[in-house]
Structure formats: C-alpha cells, structure tokens
Amino acid sequence: MVDGLSVIVSGGSMGGLFAALALGEAGHSVDVFERAAGELEGRGAGIVAQPSMLDYLERRGIACRGGYTLTTHRREYLNRDGSLREARSDSMTFTGWDTLYRRLRDAVVEGRYHEGHVVGFERDGEEVVVRFADGSERRADLLVIAEGGRSETREALLPDVSPEYAGYVAWRGLIGERDVPSDLIERFEDTFVFFEGERQLILGYLIPGPDGETGRGERRLNWVWYDDVRDRERLDELLTDSQGTERDFSVAPGDLRGEVERDLRRAAEEEFPDPFSRLVGETREPFVQTIYDLSAPEMAFGRVCLLGDAAFVARPHTAAGTAKAAADAIGLGAALDGSDPVTALGDWERERLAAGRRLVREGIRMGEGYMG
C-alpha cells in the first residue's frame, strides 16, 4: 500500500464526502474543499438508499440503517380519479439528502472539511498544485474532482463535454408530516405511490426527518413530478427565479416566481388525482430541477480524477446517483492500494467508466419509457 498520499477533494457534497471516507480509511491524508459549505446541510429532497451504500455505512459504523431510513413494501399506481390501477409488493428504502449528508459530514475527520473554491491546478512532477479562489495554493499527490454535474474543473479538462437537457424537468417538494392531514399521510404509509399521465409522472413517498427521525409525526412527505418542457421559452420562464435571475439548471426552494408557483398548483389540481393534487397544493416551497444527461469519456488525468456526478449524471429514474458516487469513491480507495497512483487510477477508470455508461444508458431508457 502507498502510505501517506496527500489528497485534495474539490467538492464536499455526497461524492466528495464518500471519497474522503474511503480514501481516509485506505490510509491517505484527505482534505475536502466545498465552495458552499454553509449551504449544503439545508438541502432537502428524498433519495433512494441503495443496499450497497447502506451496507458500507453500517459496516464502518457511520450509520445504522434503521436510524435514518424508511422502507416501503408496496408500490401503487393510481388512476386519474384516484382509484387503484395496479399494486404489487416491492421493497424500497428511502432517506433524505440532508439526513445522509449530516451523517457523512460528521464522519469526516475533524479539521479536514474546509470552505474553499478550487479554480485551477497544474501538474508539477509527482504533485498537483491546486489553486483556490482566495489566491492560495496547496500541493497534493492527488486531486479528486467531486464538484457535481456543473463542475468547472471538468469543463476545463473536457471542454467539449457538457450536460445535455433531456426535454423535461422535475418539480420537487418536501412537507412535514405535521403540516398535512392524517389521511394524506396514511395514503403513503408503507407505500411508494405513482400516477402516470400524458408525458407526466408524479410519485411520492415518506422519508425521515432532517436528523433521521422516523417516528410518526416526525417524518416528511417527498414528491417528484416529471413534467414535459420541450419549449425553450417556457423552460427559460420556469428557470427565472423570484429575483429575475435566469438559472441554468434549477431554482431552489423559496425562489420560484409567484406566477410559476401558482401555475404549478393549478396544473396539479387539474391533472393529478388526490392525493397528489393535495400534496402539491400544500407544499410551501416547491422547487424545480432540469433533467439532463452527462457522460465523460475520461475520468483519470494523471494524478487528477473525476468522481460521481462530475463524470456521469444519470436521470433520477435510476435511483442510483448517490450510490454511484459512493461506488466510485469506494473503488478509488481500493485501487490506491498499489505502488503507483497513476497506474491505479487507470485501472479504476476502466471499471468506473463502464459503470457510469451503463447507468446513463439505463436512465435514458427509463426516461423515454416514462416521458416519450
């Protein structure tokens, strides 16, 4: 094993945190830099917690799955009038993005998570010189880029690679269990619920509270509405926030323009069955994200590598984005057990490129099935 590799991770979200944990466990010295360090903890959305990721966290004593997840055992599809169209047994485990983030963040070695924005790097022999927005520099044996799908560093490395809009958006919302009528909660109890319309899909499920609370009254209802938006002018309108700023990929909770939010609730009432029309109507701060595909042809560049969404973004239908970032990180930790980091990164890249391509293809296939 190579002892004492110094590693800088650019990006302190899910991929960056998993990288810090896996590389730290492998015996390397890891520092994580996140430009929005004070903002991440408040992000809220439901995610599917894949078994491989849950097993990793439990084996390492980071999180016991029963303490921050909820599992449904039934899947239902509704008709427009709210009646049951189809039901089947199906086990799915969910958590909150913020819930998982807190557990990962708490597991990172004290003093190794920093606020900082990586703006560039140079290779200097067997080291990488990393530059930050404040003008400072640091040297490391390895630079891991975990900046997400809008990675500026990836754009510098691969200027011809950019996210490709899929033609639809995801409206999302979270609402506390205490803020909705009990009969609405009961509709989602132990059940993953769907409604499919004409180029429309909405789904909902219960997730734990922000700190992993799973008791009745402490949980949250999470919903996602995939909405066909192929008209560029309409998309631009949706992505213009309450301050008049046009966003590229998303508008955060609380920042939707009033007319957009009113149209959203009206459309839900007209197009969706109860319980979804009520659920959207009672959500205080819905938000919107564009759906896009991203595939990088390379992940390793000497002593620099791309990880997680910085390399591949698969549509959320796969329910595997966070798990894929975790697998990238865990694989990287295992690969850097050899004598030559550059060779190890090459071997790791071949495996993770194949996995990323498969996931993106599956996301496209699923999206076309839902949205046409």
From TrEMBL:
<feature type="domain" description="2,6-dihydroxypyridine 3-monooxygenase substrate binding">
    <location>
        <begin position="165"/>
        <end position="293"/>
    </location>
</feature>
<dbReference type="Pfam" id="PF01494">
    <property type="entry name" value="FAD_binding_3"/>
</dbReference>
<dbReference type="InterPro" id="IPR002938">
    <property type="entry name" value="FAD-bd"/>
</dbReference>
<dbReference type="InterPro" id="IPR036188">
    <property type="entry name" value="FAD/NAD-bd_sf"/>
</dbReference>
<dbReference type="Pfam" id="PF22607">
    <property type="entry name" value="FAD_binding-like"/>
</dbReference>
<protein>
    <submittedName>
        <fullName>FAD binding domain-containing protein</fullName>
    </submittedName>
</protein>
<feature type="domain" description="FAD-binding">
    <location>
        <begin position="6"/>
        <end position="160"/>
    </location>
</feature>
<dbReference type="InterPro" id="IPR054707">
    <property type="entry name" value="DhpH_subs-bd"/>
</dbReference>
<dbReference type="InterPro" id="IPR053212">
    <property type="entry name" value="DHP_3-monooxygenase"/>
</dbReference>
